[in-house]
Amino acid sequence: MGLFNVTHPASFLLTGVPGLESSHSWLAGPLCVMYAVALGGNTVILQAVRVEPSLHVPMYYFLSMLSFSDMAMSMCTLPTVLRTFCLNVRSIAFDACLIQMFLIHSFSMMESGILLAMSFDRYVAICNPLRYATVLTNDIITGMGFAVIARSFIILFPLPFLIKKLPFCRSNVLSHSYCLHPDVMKLACADITINSIYGFFVLVSTFGMDLLFIFLSYVLILRSVMAIASNEKRLKALNTCVSHMLAVLAFYVPMIGVSTVHRFGKHAPHYLHVLMSNVYLFVPPVLNPLIYSAKSKEIRRAIVRMFHHIKI
């Protein structure tokens, strides 16, 4: 009991993959590859947009924001994940855990807001192309970026304090190799109704509303595209949305899965919780740069030119 003070543990113990502790050193390799792809791929996209004048348009400014958010998300989990799997160092200080929890959820919410902004960009580009340049000015794009950041900070600011008010007198072992709000609050030995309600409110009022507006924007986009007489022009218009639609699926499908498992899968195998949470945090940062590099000719050309200049 020396580990505990009056209200909370001095530290939490992180968990890798239950039942596969002996294989953690083998799992470290694929995890390092995923981090390298996420950090390297998003860095390349950021640099390509920065140095290529033809990419200085709203769509690629939003892509830069998405890449930055993906990199930040990866950097938040990297220290504890690699310590757990590579060094078998499982301890994380209580306050450090709360900071990591806040950052993970903040950058996840920012990514959701950026995907919503990108859907608005596609809506204006396809449904009202003549006003595209006047609607999405640099000032508007900057304002949208700051609004996404401010929303995440303001809405999630109470979370660490709500956790800090809870007494922890039982286990201090978390289910993952990083700190998440649903995981931490379940270890409390007090009523967590307020935490649970607030977490659900955050989920519905931000991620839920973002997804609803993204869906509505695509309903309007499809209605506008269907009014185009030429099949070739229809496909060309829809093709500009494919990368964004894949990024939305890569983000929201794992997020809905992990939320469902946490709230309704109490009797589901523990490894399913771990698997869904890892997919939710690792898949979008890895897939997004691959999706946009594969689907966007402009990005591919910019990357090729950038590496050609480096080689010279």
How would you describe the overall organization of this protein?
The structure is a single chain. This protein is mainly α. It has one domain (11-113, 130-311): Rhopdopsin 7-helix transmembrane proteins, CATH 1.20.1070.10. 76% of the residues lie in helices and 2% in strands. It has 11 helices and 2 strands, in the order βααβααααααααα. Strands 1-2 form a two-stranded antiparallel ribbon. α1 (24-51) runs antiparallel to α2 (58-87), α3 packs antiparallel against α6 (158-164) and α3 (94-127) packs parallel to α8 (193-226). The longest helix has 34 residues, at 94-127. The protein is globular. The N and C termini lie far apart (62 Å). Residues 1-6 have low confidence and may be disordered.
Put the structure in a nutshell.
By secondary structure, the protein is mainly alpha-helical. The chain contains eleven helices and two strands, in the order E-H-H-E-H-H-H-H-H-H-H-H-H.
Characteristics of this structure?
single chain; 312 residues; mainly alpha; Rhopdopsin 7-helix transmembrane proteins; two-stranded antiparallel sheet; 11 helices; disordered N terminus
Task: Please give the structural blueprint.
Blueprint: E1 11-13, H1 24-51, H2 58-87, E2 91-93, H3 94-127, H4 132-135, H5 138-156, H6 158-164, H7 181-185, H8 193-226, H9 231-264, H10 270-295, H11 297-311
Antiparallel strand pairs: 1-2
Helix pairs in contact: 1-2, 1-10, 1-11, 2-3, 2-10, 3-5, 3-6, 3-8, 3-9, 8-9, 9-10, 10-11
**CATH structural architecture:** Up-down Bundle
How many domains? The number is: 1
> Describe the biggest sheet?
2 strands, antiparallel
CATH superfamily descriptor: Rhodopsin 7-helix transmembrane proteins
The gyration radius over C-alpha positions equals 21 Å
Q: What is the tally of helical segments?
A: 11
User: Looking across the biggest beta sheet, what order are the strands in?
Assistant: 1-2
- The SSE order reads EHHEHHHHHHHHH
CATH topology: Rhopdopsin 7-helix transmembrane proteins
The share of residues in extended strands comes to under 5%
Extended strand count: 2
Question: N- to C-terminal separation?
Answer: 62 Å
Binned, the helix content reads over 70%
Q: Describe the global form.
A: globular
Structural class: mainly alpha
